[in-house]
Amino acid sequence: MTQSSSATATVKGPNGSLNVALGEATPEQILPWCGIVTAAFAPSFPSSAFFAHEEYLAQHPLTLNQGTRFWCIYLADDPTTLLAVTKTVRRQFLVRDSESVHEETGYCIGYVGTHPDYRRLGLASLLIKHVAEWLDGPADATASMLYTSVGDFYVGQGWDMIPSMVSNITHPSDEFQSVDRKGLPSTRLLTDKEIPALCERDVADLKQNFDELTVGPDEVHVAVIPSAEMVSWLHTWGDFLNDKLRGGEGPYPHGAICESANTWIYWHYGFKHLAIDRVVGQGSPEVLAALLLDVLEEARKWKFPKVVAWEPSPELIKAMDLISKRAGVEVETVTRPNSITSLRWKNADKTKKTTLHLNETYASC
Predict the structure, then answer these.
(1) d(CA 260, CA 155)
(2) Where does the N-acetyltransferase domain start and stop, copy by copy (predicted)?
(3) Which of 67, 206, 233, 336 has a CA that sits 20 to 30 A from residue 4's CA?
(4) Could you check whether the bond before residue 138 is cis, i.e. omega within 30 degrees of 0?
(5) How far apart are the first and last CA of the chain?
(6) For residues 158 and 335, is the Cβ–Cβ distance under 8 A?
(7) Rounded distance between C-alpha atoms, residue 136 and residue 312, angstroms
(8) pTM for this one?
(9) Is the CB of residue 231 less than 8 Å from the CB of residue 195?
(10) Sign (positive or negative) of CA dihedral 49, 226, 160, 1
(11) 18-57: per-residue pLDDT in tens?
């Protein structure tokens, strides 16, 4: 893939016409890029710290070889004044159509933000259109995903919103308590060295499940491959935050396993909550309850007031009901009000009915 060339446009600004350019950010534009992101999504987080965060993530396997690209719109006569930003992060998809199961390359779009002085001018639409043209052209991306609270905006750009649920586990006192595990199966924390082998097993099971699907000519099934590279992305992302925001020091645990039930769970540290990234296996509600208590213990350690899980299975919902009684926590499962999953096929192709599998947090960016 080649470096994206810049384009130019004229837009109506608050004080008259603006001549702007758009394309990939230069190294000199990354710091102001971070400033717009923090203003839009994490105003209490200094842009210099966010810049250091991106440098930290740049060493992750998912970002190497231009796996992450930064995009922006800026004043044509002042490249240091950025008006709108976003970024793309590479990922691998498993696709099952009526002919075969195959792996494809795509991207996740994240941090779509506009400078406060230049909002409601159509700049985000202009930038996303430019990125979509890159995805369809030089990137040759089979599919792309994003997570948003304004899904209708992206439908007009070719992305389809996918129904998405979330479970929120909270404690009335804002601090989880240690809980008696009597009657529950034994679990243990995972080490990071164990995660790649578990991911290999997970991916093998996913491919077998896709092989066994019966798919009509007007259908397509897709999942972000839960490889070690993908699963560890948010672990790395959250570890930096835990260091800077909560004074932690790695290595941190990122999961737990119930070996007798061949079931495990991953998590990462967020800005204000602990997130369950993926639940793997067919464990009973009692097994999952034991693993959830490991998650709650980690949340208690770092004083997180909330644990979230995307797309909880019926068994996980039953497990949360079990711990709600045992641990005195409140559980709410609702349609996601934000971070709604949206997917776009190359060239905004909508000719086939899409089923997304594993719509869990590990696949987000």
Answers:
(1) 44
(2) 20-170
(3) 233
(4) no
(5) 21
(6) no
(7) 33
(8) 0.94
(9) yes
(10) positive
(11) 999 999 999 999 999 999 999 988 888 899 999 999 999 9
